[in-house]
């Protein structure tokens, strides 16, 4: 549990202490209309985390009351995300659609009590009658229908006798309530659509304000945790439960601030658009803030949970810097993953005075990482270095290889540039170099001082790999639409070269490519014939001001 107790846990502890509840029950209630994103991870971490911390349990409930947008594939993605983050829901997955009969029975009860009525105003008049913040609303003339008439209409609505929008069921509360949401809110609407689970049984579907509180009640939920935009819905939540006179213990709603992150979008509607219009390659595109995307990119569940924990639970909305998320994955991988060498933009170096071949011992971890392990790296006359690790006209402060400045090949020897070969257009094609036999890493007696060590691969044994470099999905902090998409968010390098030890490994592994960043073997596209690595994150925050 986090060291500092958040306001939700403070409430939970008080409720346990005063005996309001014996057992804590929470729920994570997504609508299966898209893949979950990191905002959902936040809600998962809170709901499942609180249940775990107080020996209660958390349900996974599909809030599936909108037949036109929901689908089984999203249910599966949601289950996957919760499991991958390391949580377990109690019993079976719950579905609001499984409660439709019960909800309908409660609706009938409200009608009988004179607390709900069938309204037949057209949408525009209904909106007009709601009034404004400063002006009381006006009740519909249909609010005076008798219970019998309402029951008859409601049943016929259910049976599909009316068209979409012809009638709605509304709570009879107060058309001049200061809280606009309390001005006779809608409880049911007509929708002639096939529901992915309930099929064609229903022609009416409960609204959030009616279905959510009662679903919580059915499941014995104690703390119904939602995001701030539902603050004004809390009065309806309470009204429905109170008006129906439901036996305690009953749930209460508590709100926290939604998670927002800069340079990305976090609404399923916007994410769906990116996916459907092929701006990205599916819901698990590594550029997306979806859990499937982050997972495919190479993020670990630990790093995401740690991020959720670090940012805390707030009561006011704010946007978190994506650099914080990146910090968390770097922090997690730093102590876990082996360091290997990969050259993204290869420049050939021929070491004139080297004869034969050699196997060098190379530790997978730097000294400050308490992990053991090493591999052999082949070394021979022809190697490749990163093109940008050589400069013929070095700027000030350039510490890598130049015609006048030697450099160390990591885990190997110091080399000196002897000659620069170019093609007819003046592009550098090869470096002719010399190595110093006394400068071997770990037993260097050469006395040569170098300013840096660079990665390299041996030409004969290196393997070709595809590397996918990801950048921010949007080019501005608070993206507004498709125009703000970053055109360079994905760069594919087809012929990077990697040391042979790496491709012999199984996929589903992470590495640090020395001096480049952290990489993940793509769980879907990686094959022995075409190894693919996704860049998770760079070694340092390259955007830091
Ligand atoms: P979106 O607008 O992205 O579709 P939503 O709130 O409609 O989000 P739901 O599927 O209804 O998505 O959300 C399931 C749960 O996750 C809800 O309790 C919701 O409050 C929470 N949640 C969704 N987005 C965020 C977020 N950005 N930060 C924290 N919690 C979130
Ligand atoms: Mg929702
Ligand atoms: Mg939504």
TrEMBL record:
Organism: Sulfurimonas crateris
Range of the intact protein held here: 1 to 545 of 749
UniProt subunit comment: Heterotrimer of A, B and C subunits.
EC numbers on record: 6.1.1.18
Any one of the GO BP annotations: glutaminyl-tRNA aminoacylation
GO molecular function terms noted in the UniProt entry: asparaginyl-tRNA synthase (glutamine-hydrolyzing) activity; ATP binding; glutamine-tRNA ligase activity; glutaminyl-tRNA synthase (glutamine-hydrolyzing) activity
Record protein name field: Glutamine--tRNA ligase
Protein family per UniProt: Belongs to the class-I aminoacyl-tRNA synthetase family. Belongs to the GatB/GatE family. GatB subfamily.
Function: Allows the formation of correctly charged Asn-tRNA(Asn) or Gln-tRNA(Gln) through the transamidation of misacylated Asp-tRNA(Asn) or Glu-tRNA(Gln) in organisms which lack either or both of asparaginyl-tRNA or glutaminyl-tRNA synthetases. The reaction takes place in the presence of glutamine and ATP through an activated phospho-Asp-tRNA(Asn) or phospho-Glu-tRNA(Gln).
Domain of life: Bacteria
Catalytic activity: L-aspartyl-tRNA(Asn) + L-glutamine + ATP + H2O = L-asparaginyl-tRNA(Asn) + L-glutamate + ADP + phosphate + 2 H(+); L-glutamyl-tRNA(Gln) + L-glutamine + ATP + H2O = L-glutaminyl-tRNA(Gln) + L-glutamate + ADP + phosphate + H(+); tRNA(Gln) + L-glutamine + ATP = L-glutaminyl-tRNA(Gln) + AMP + diphosphate
Entry's Gene Ontology cellular component terms: cytosol
Keywords for the protein's UniProt record, in alphabetical order: Aminoacyl-tRNA synthetase, ATP-binding, Cytoplasm, Ligase, Nucleotide-binding, Protein biosynthesis
């Amino acid at each position: 549990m986090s060291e500092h107790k958040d306001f939700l846990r403070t409430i939970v502890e008080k409720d346990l202490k005063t005996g309001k509840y014996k057992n804590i029950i929470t729920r994570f209630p997504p609508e299966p209309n898209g893949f979950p994103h990191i905002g959902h991870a936040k809600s998962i971490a809170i709901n499942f985390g609180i249940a775990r911390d107080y020996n209660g349990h958390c349900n996974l409930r599909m809030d599936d009351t909108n037949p036109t947008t929901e689908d089984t594939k999203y249910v599966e993605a949601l289950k996957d995300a919760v499991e991958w983050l390391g949580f377990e829901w109690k019993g079976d997955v719950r579905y609001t659609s499984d409660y439709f009969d019960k909800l309908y029975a409660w609706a009938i009860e409200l009608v009988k009590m004179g607390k709900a009525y069938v309204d037949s105003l057209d949408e525009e008049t209904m909106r007009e009658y709601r009034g404004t913040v400063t002006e009381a609303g006006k009740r519909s003339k249909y609010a005076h229908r008798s219970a019998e008439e309402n029951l008859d209409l409601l049943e016929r609505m259910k049976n599909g006798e009316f068209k979409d929008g012809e009638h709605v069921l509304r709570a009879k509360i107060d058309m001049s309530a200061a809280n606009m949401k309390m001005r006779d809110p809608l409880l049911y609407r007509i929708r002639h659509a096939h529901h992915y689970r309930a099929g064609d049984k229903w022609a009416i579907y409960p609204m959030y304000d009616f279905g959510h509180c009662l679903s919580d009640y059915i499941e014995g939920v104690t703390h119904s945790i939602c995001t701030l935009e539902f603050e004004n819905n809390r009065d309806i939540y309470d009204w429905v439960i109170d008006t129906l006179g439901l036996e305690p213990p009953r749930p209460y709603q508590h709100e926290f601030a939604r998670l927002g992150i800069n340079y990305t979008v976090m609404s399923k509607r916007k994410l769906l658009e990116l996916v459907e219009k092929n701006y990205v390659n599916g819901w698990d595109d590594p550029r997306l803030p979806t859990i499937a995307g982050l997972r495919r990119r190479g993020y670990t569940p630990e790093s995401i949970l740690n991020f959720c924990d670090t940012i805390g639970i707030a009561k006011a909305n704010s946007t978190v810097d994506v650099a914080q998320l990146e910090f968390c994955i770097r922090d997690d991988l730093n102590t876990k993953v082996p360091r290997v060498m990969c050259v993204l933009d290869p420049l050939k170096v021929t070491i004139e005075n080297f004869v034969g071949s050699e196997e060098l011992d190379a530790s997978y971890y730097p000294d400050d990482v308490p992990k053991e392990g090493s591999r052999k790296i082949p070394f021979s006359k022809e190697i490749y270095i990163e093109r940008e690790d050589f400069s013929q006209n070095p700027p000030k402060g350039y510490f890598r290889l130049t015609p006048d400045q030697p450099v160390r090949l990591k885990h190997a020897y110091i080399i000196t540039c002897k000659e620069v070969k170019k093609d007819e257009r003046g592009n550098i094609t090869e470096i002719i170099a010399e190595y110093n036999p006394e400068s071997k890493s770990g037993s260097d007696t050469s006395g040569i001082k170098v300013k840096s060590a660079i990665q390299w691969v041996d030409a004969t044994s290196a393997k070709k790999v595809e590397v996918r470099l990801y950048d921010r999905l949007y080019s501005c902090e608070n993206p507004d639409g498709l125009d703000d998409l970053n055109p360079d968010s994905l760069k594919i390098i087809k012929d990077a070269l990697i040391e042979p030890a790496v491709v012999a490994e199984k996929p589903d592994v992470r590495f640090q490519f020395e001096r480049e960043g952290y990489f993940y073997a793509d769980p879907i596209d990686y094959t022995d014939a075409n190894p693919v690595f996704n860049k998770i994150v760079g070694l340092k925050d390259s955007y830091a001001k």
